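Sat 14:20. Reprocessing the chain from the morning session after the first attempt stalled halfway. Input below, unchanged.
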Amino acid sequence: MTNTDRKNGSDIDTRVYVTLRSLIAMQRDAHGFSFLPRQAVRSKLTGRRMSSLRGRGLNFEEIRQYRAGDDIRTMDWKVTNRTGRPHVRAYSEERERPVLFLLDQRQSMFFGSVDKMKSVAAAELAALIAWRVIDVGDRIGALIFNDSHSKDIKPGRHRSDVLNILKQIERYNHLLKAQPQDLQSVDSLNRILLQAKHLVTHDYLVVLISDLAGWDEKTIKLLIQMSQHNDVVISQVSDKLERHLPNQSGLIVSDGHLQINVDGRDSSTRASFEQHQFNDRAQLNAALTKHGIAVLPLSTSRATITQLRSAIGLDKAAAGP
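Finished this time. Tokens:
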């Protein structure tokens, strides 16, 4: 795929903005991966309690004594021999779990120093998930949000449902502009999580795709509450410059309102900045993984599908930047 796409007679750099065409093209890569609990040892999804993006099957329930009419193929011979009484392994049919992704398109996501904007990487991952979900016959829904608005799309299992989601992703993505961030929107992440909490009552796979800007203890609490009856996965999007200061002087650091001059050549300044960023991410990841919430890193520096395959253990390369 080239880095430009044409829309309404003008060329769009797909490293800066997604297009419906570029998101549809993600379908060709949306295969060969799943969010099953049974993952490769190196997968960051290993050990979760629930999952979706899967085929239909049976869930093991219990071992109980044989009853008339039970299928002899379910006999557990080890327990039968040990107890002297016939026992069978009881199964229940695996239920469908709809998938809902929460896609962050806030102003903090409109940043990228390597290959693409964080907002683009996030949108690409959402498209990959959407195409994969309907490919295995499950339903996909979305909650797309920016600093002030959100769009709730109910889960569906048809191509038309995915196309509707992708159109909304494109619309929200194109609302992003290089402008100061509204400091009144710092609680926007928690407001969306609270909204999502009321949407996903039970047995959903929830995938939050965000840089998690503005997270706090309330954010963790909401995610843990959601994970009590749903499978929650987070893809934390980041850029190299958010973790490492460039080794040069005259750096202007700004929050969109205030700015300071930073000397990136000063080793202590760089070390302090990098340690702060590392501690922030480590604290968040530790709190989430403790409660069975998987965190998949997503960087602006590599192809989105490559990172996804690495994170779930399909490639030998390590995931992340």
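The mean pLDDT is 82.
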